[in-house]
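Propose amino acids for all 482 sites.
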């Protein structure tokens, strides 16, 4: 009974083929991080070689996660992706915590962060208004600064509302927008790489030379702690690699196309990230990159392209960032709403969230609640605070999915597996170990972000208790009627 849809007026359609699935995968990852995160990484590590190493290691770890998770994703193709995986591996209550966390912090904070960088790019083109004075530093609980950078935040919230409306009109409309934007983005990034390496005044010496203040100050964990902190920034740029699983019920031939889209997509993303970040460091010396990191509204890519293409380059890259973040935010909104829909369909959330619009075949109420909460997160804090918080929460569940490969091998040894994890059991075990280490290190290096992430996850407990009690009452009433 719990697995039956609550709404019979509409249904999801299998409208997404392999090319579109690959494009949705790439567009759900390539967003704000590729343009902005290199600056805080430079501030922490003070060495271009270490920065590139952090990008490469984050790519390898993400690849390990993809290789492990694809086995589960090919077996379980229900809407909601990881929520459906956890329900089958650990049970519906553990799955609830993922679904709740997706709404409370992971996916909603991702949407908020991407939209925030979109607004910062608009601000680079046309300066947006600020309240100034004491409003900028006024806080709630000493943590949140809702009125700082107010113009940027208002534009970000408006973008979220507009994209939610587009995706309400149908999965084809949302995916077509992502297709066009992703082709433009990958082509433009390729042009930046080629121009930066050919016509700029950059030099390989910039890639070899650390900052004047190197080595950086390190805490109790030394350079390993700084590397983990830098990788936390890089992981934000790789965030979104699970999103294609959210729309499993809308992908044609999902047992084949979901694994293929993951593997093809991650190869494209890793190649693009290493090439573009090498270009940034080739053009801009480390000391200049560190100076950029101290400016709240600066975007490294804008400054780098401005160095060799002038004002026209600044205009071009600012528009490109707007297009990229528009595409990434659109894809994240499209896919993530299916998690909240699946949660409600299993009677672990408000029943109306499971409503599928009979005309557009989309989970309209799930899109609405996601947009509202993401907009509130926009006003809660800064870009880096949001991304560190969501990456911490994400890796708790990433590790749980990879561990699920072992659990399902034991629980369901005879179940057909269209794709089997490469390097099992060593590679999935390494990924689980890394996830555990990252969670621990984040608690030490970023205690505020880790604490906020845990608080938002655990905030779902009262809701779980309420929905569990209500589900039991409905089951008893059903028994009496029979």
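Proposal:
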């Amino acid at each position: 009974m719990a697995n039956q849809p609550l709404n019979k007026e509409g249904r999801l359609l299998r409208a997404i083929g392999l090319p579109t699935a690959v494009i949705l995968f790439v567009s759900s990852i390539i967003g704000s991080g590729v343009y902005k995160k290199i600056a805080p990484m430079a501030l922490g590590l003070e060495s271009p070689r270490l920065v590139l190493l952090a990008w490469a290691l984050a790519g390898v770890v993400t690849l390990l996660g993809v290789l492990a998770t694809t086995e589960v994703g090919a077996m379980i193709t229900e809407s909601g992706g990881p929520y459906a995986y956890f329900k089958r591996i650990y049970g519906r209550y553990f799955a609830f915590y993922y679904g709740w966390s997706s709404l409370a912090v992971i996916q909603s904070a991702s949407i908020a962060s991407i939209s925030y960088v979109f607004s910062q790019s608009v601000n680079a083109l046309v300066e947006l208004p600020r309240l100034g004075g004491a409003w900028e530093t006024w806080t709630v609980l000493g943590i949140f600064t809702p009125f700082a950078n107010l113009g940027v935040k208002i534009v970000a919230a408006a973008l979220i509302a507009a994209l939610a409306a587009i995706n309400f009109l149908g999965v084809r409309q949302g995916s077509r927008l992502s297709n066009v934007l992703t082709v433009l983005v990958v082509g433009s990034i390729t042009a930046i790489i080629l121009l930066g390496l050919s016509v700029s005044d950059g030099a390989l010496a910039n890639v070899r030379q650390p900052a004047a203040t190197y080595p950086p100050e390190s805490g109790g964990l030394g350079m390993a702690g700084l590397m983990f902190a830098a990788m936390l920034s890089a992981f934000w740029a790789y965030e979104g690699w699970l999103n294609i699983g959210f729309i499993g019920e809308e992908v044609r031939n999902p047992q084949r196309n979901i694994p293929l889209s993951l593997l093809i997509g991650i190869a494209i993303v890793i190649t693009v990230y290493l090439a573009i970040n090498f270009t940034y460091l080739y053009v801009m010396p480390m000391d200049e990159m560190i100076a950029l990191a101290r400016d709240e509204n600066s975007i490294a890519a804008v400054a780098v392209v401005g160095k060799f293409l002038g004002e026209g380059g600044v205009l071009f890259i600012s528009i490109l960032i707007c297009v990229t973040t528009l595409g990434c935010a659109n894809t994240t909104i499209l896919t993530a709403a299916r998690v909240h829909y699946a949660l409600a369909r299993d009677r672990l959330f408000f029943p109306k969230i499971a409503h599928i619009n009979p005309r557009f075949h989309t989970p309209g109420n799930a899109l609405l609640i996601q947009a509202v909460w993401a907009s509130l997160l926009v006003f809660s804090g800064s870009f880096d605070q949001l991304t560190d918080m969501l990456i911490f929460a994400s890796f708790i569940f990433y590790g749980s999915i990879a561990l699920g490969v072992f659990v399902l091998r034991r629980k369901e040894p005879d179940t057909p597996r269209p794709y089997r994890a490469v390097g099992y059991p060593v590679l999935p075990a390494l990924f689980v170990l890394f996830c555990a280490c990252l969670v621990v290190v984040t608690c030490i290096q970023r205690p505020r972000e880790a604490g906020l992430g845990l608080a938002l996850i655990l905030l779902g407990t009262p809701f779980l208790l309420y929905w569990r009690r209500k589900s039991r009452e409905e089951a008893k009433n059903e028994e009496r009627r029979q």
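The first helix runs from residue 18 to 29. Residues 1-9 have pLDDT under 50 and may be disordered.
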